[in-house]
Amino acid sequence: MSKYLINRYKTLEVYVPGEQPKDMEYVKLNTNESPFPPSKGVLDRISSEEVSRLNLYPDPECKKLKQKLAELYNFNTENIFISNGSDEILSFSFMAFCSEEVGAVFPNISYGFYKVYGDLYDVDYKEMPLKKDFTIDINDYLNVGKTVVIANPNAPTGLSLSVDDIEKIVISNPENVVLIDEAYVDFGGNSCVELVRKYDNLLVVRTYSKSRSMAGARLGYAIGSKQLIEDLNRIKYSTNPYNINRLTLAAGEAAIDDNDYYMSCCNEIVKIREYSKKKLSDLGFEYLDSDTNFIFAKSSIIRGEEYYQKLKQNGVLVRHFSSPLISDYVRITIGTKEQMDMLFDITEKILQEVSL
Ligand SMILES: *Cc1c(COP(=O)(O)O)cnc(C)c1O
User: Fold this and answer.
1) Residue numbers of the domain that contains 275
2) Same structural domain for residues 265 and 252?
3) Does pTM top 0.70 for this prediction?
4) Residue 288's closest CA among 150, 159, 148, 173?
5) Dist CA 272 CA 279 (whole Å)
6) How many domains does the chain have?
7) Which of 224, 258, 292 is where one domain is finished?
8) In sequence order, which ranges of 173-258 are alpha helices (DSSP H)?
9) Which of 92, 168, 289, 323 could form a Cys-Cys staple with 235, CB 3.0–4.6 A?
10) Do 167 and 146 belong to one domain?
11) What does the pLDDT look like over 182-222, one tens digit per residue?
């Protein structure tokens, strides 16, 4: 840290991304990426012709991509906001809709970035405890008079709220924005995107990183009322108008044309997830009933941290969180069937070793 850094940033607890070690080839089941490559249409679009236009700025309005997304979900382009990963929408939303005066509420076990943005933007936020079974108690979010941020399905639990419950939260907080982060919704969750037609305080946030195999391209989008989207644009045009690079824009457009491919990848992941649940049961693990592309699981034989370490020594990465509330668990991303079978084989070996 330099002596020049402004005081309020000195104590920030920054977000820690899942590790990406380069010392060897790991089976990567730690950051919820898709194990499947982008579609052929995306590969073809990133041609040398496309690359040769990198001397030109990209379209700051992302018109074509907005049109494609608007068509896919049957909204108008004025209801769509495009961002550099959905993290950027979260950042812009905390800036636009939260402050010391306008507080925020989110679950105490959820996506780690909510708290980081809350701190970064000096937001008066409150973390609501999950119930014993790791579900969200919607009573904590009714009539709170603060900005509500909920990942649905939640991470790292993988559990979903119903659209009815989301609607109750939206109705009961008419003076505040309710942001629903649907990063994992394509794997079987309940999308509340249709509620956007009825409520102007609901913002639904999506990403290409999980279900559209484009974590490396950094692309996210939000669907909301025209006014909310205008607010996000005020922030965007005050920070980084060219937030989406040309190649990512082109890839994002091509991916929508190949929507069927991505939906079949999601189906495949759901199948492997259900297979994996059974294998984990056979190995004596307990897990939450995931609607996502990961499983939050714990063993009665080995602690979360030790299991994570031993898997890593054997070339498999999963995510372990040190927060005491969830430190018994690991979060396992669903990979290909082959990757999962490697995980299960190694796990069997590890469990045998520790039981000796
Ligand atoms: C992965 C994830 C994000 C961030 O996605 P990017 O689009 O890659 O920035 C946002 N919210 C949740 C809940 C996530 O798991």
Assistant:
1) 7-37+260-355
2) no
3) yes
4) 159
5) 10
6) 2
7) 258
8) 226-239, 246-257
9) 92
10) yes
11) 999 999 999 999 999 999 999 999 999 999 999 999 999 99
Q: Domain boundary at 221, 237, 258, which?
A: 258
Atom of ligand 1 nearest to the CA of 151: 13
**What pLDDT, in 10s, does the model give residues 49-82?**
999 999 999 999 999 999 999 999 999 999 999 9
**How far, in Å, is the centroid of ligand 1 from the Cα of 266?**
16
The answer, yes or no, to whether any atom of ligand 1 lies below 6 A from the CB of 111, is: yes
Domain identity same for 316 and 246? no
Q: Are 106 and 63 in contact (CB under 8 A)?
A: no
Query: What is residue 260's predicted lDDT score, i.e. its pLDDT?
Result: 97
Q: In this predicted model, what pLDDT tens digit does every residue of 93-149 receive, in sequence order?
A: 999 999 999 999 999 999 999 999 999 999 999 999 999 999 999 999 999 999 999
Residue 2 maps to a domain: no
48 and 73 together in one domain: yes
Measured in Å, residue 147 CA sits from the centre of ligand 1 at: 19
Return the exposure string of 204-228: e unless at least 16 CB atoms fall within 10 Å of the residue's CB, then b.
Answer: bbbbbbbbbbbbebbbbbbbbbeeb
- Inform me whether the pLDDT recorded for 23 exceeds 90: no
Do 231 and 308 lie in one domain? The reply is no
The whole-number average pLDDT for the span 31-37 is 97
Residue 86 CA to ligand 1 center (angstroms) comes to 6
Tell whether 1 is covered by a domain: no
Residues 107, 169: Cα–Cα separation, whole Å: 14
**Cα 207 to ligand 1 centre (Å):** 7
Q: Write down the number of H helices and E strands in the chain.
A: 12, 12
Mean pLDDT of all residues in 31-41: 98
Reference 247, options 209, 211, 210, 214; nearest CA is 214
